[in-house]
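Hi,

Apologies if this is the wrong queue. I'm a grad student, and the batch job for 2-oxoadipate dioxygenase/decarboxylase from Klebsiella pneumoniae produced an output file that my downstream script rejects. I'm not sure whether the problem is my script or the file. Here is the sequence I used:
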Amino acid sequence: MVCFPGCHINHLTPRTLDIDRVQSLMPECGIEPKALIEGPPRREVPILLRQTSFKALEEPVMFAGEHRGTHSARFGEIEQRGVALTPKGRALYDRLLQAAGTGKIISATSSIYRSV
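Support response: The file is valid. Your script probably expects a header line. Output copied below for reference.
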C-alpha cells in the first residue's frame, strides 16, 4: 500500500471522438500507449465502447524507514463510445456484458456470438 501526502489521481478516463488518432499521437507526445485498442475494429460508424490506455508513470516515493522506491499505479484510459447498430446487437452486447460481470466465461465459439 502506498500513501501520498496530498491529492492523488489514480485513474483518469477522458473521452475522444477518434481513438485511433489518439493512439497514434500518444508516442509523439512522449506517452507510451498499450499495444492495441480494446473493442471492435475501427468502422465508418462507431460501435459501442473502444478504449486504450497509457502505461502507468513510474514515480519516486519514500517508504517508511527512509527507503526509496517507485510507484507505478497512476495511468489513464481513453475511450470512444459509439452505438449499437441494431436492437438485437445491443441485446447481445448487454447479455455479454452482464455475463462478464458475473465472471462467467463465454467462449468465442459459443452460439451466442453467432446469434447476431
